[in-house]
Amino acid sequence: MNNYKDKRNSMVETQLILRGIKDESVLNAMRVVPRDKFVKTKEKNHAYEDHPLPIGHGQTISQPYMVAYMTELLELKGDERVLEIGTGSGYQTAVLSELAKEVYTIDRIKILSEEANAVLDELGYKNIRFLVGDGTKGWQEQAPFDGVIVTAGAPDLPVSFMEQLADGGILVIPVGRSSYQVLTVIKKTGNNIIRKECLGCMFVPLIGEYGWKKD
Ligand code: SAM
After folding, report:
1. Quick one: how far is CA 168 from the chain centroid?
2. Ligand 1 centre and the CA of 70: distance in Å?
3. Which pLDDT tens digit goes with each residue over 126-170?
4. Which of 35, 87, 94, 172 is most buried as measured by Cβ atoms within 10 A of its Cβ?
């Protein structure tokens, strides 16, 4: 019996479905992606618990519910190009890779990007491109994106993400103080911008030119 598979299915039932995640494709991706592969050896027994975990360098792998919730907000159908800011462990990247056509992911910490790249490669994900650098500037050469997902907390909405969002695109980003943010969703349709604030959250800070200035 695959113990992790059982834990993963239980995670989906109790942490996601019971809390209102409805998108079947998101639930299926969460059933498939092995979170245990993205955490340190000593954390593997905790991989399917209902909270973030440390991944080194002062960073975290996000809570499964937050990964599913943010992914659901992107409304992916399968043909999108998505930009992720904050590769971290690569877990959210894998979920996006299951659901979008192409994923572009940026982290400012080289070793995290390299480790995530190695795990995702081993798991056979082929539609991901990695960049090391300041993600607050986005990825101009690859824009526009149908979805932008930011997995670190920003003080304000970086203008670069709005500029690099395609018409009809969706941006999901935690905005607020360094210790507490509100998950914010922006939908861009022509010149029309719809902004919705979803739920309170606590992400590590987004550090860079259009984010917080230092750790
Ligand atoms: N999505 C990740 C996962 O599933 O493991 C969790 C990401 S962790 C909460 C936040 C990440 O954002 C960290 O890896 C951190 O290095 C990164 N980060 C912070 N500021 C950044 C910036 N300006 N550009 C790119 N990455 C940044």
Report:
1. 20
2. 14
3. 999 999 999 999 999 999 999 999 999 999 999 999 999 999 999
4. 87
179 falls within a domain: yes
Number of domains composing the chain: 1
The span from the CA of 121 to the CA of 124, in Å, is 5
Here the CATH number for the domain that contains residue 103 is 3.40.50.150
41 C-beta neighbours (distance < 10 Å), count: 7
Question: 55-96, pLDDT tens digit by residue?
Answer: 999 999 999 999 999 999 999 999 999 999 999 999 999 999
Choice from 39, 137, 151, 212 to test ligand 1 binding pocket (greatest atom count within 8 A of CB): 151
CA dist 25 and 76 (Å) reads 9
Active site residues: 62
Residue range of the domain that includes 154: 52-201
Q: What CA–CA distance (Å, rounded) separates 206 from 55?
A: 16
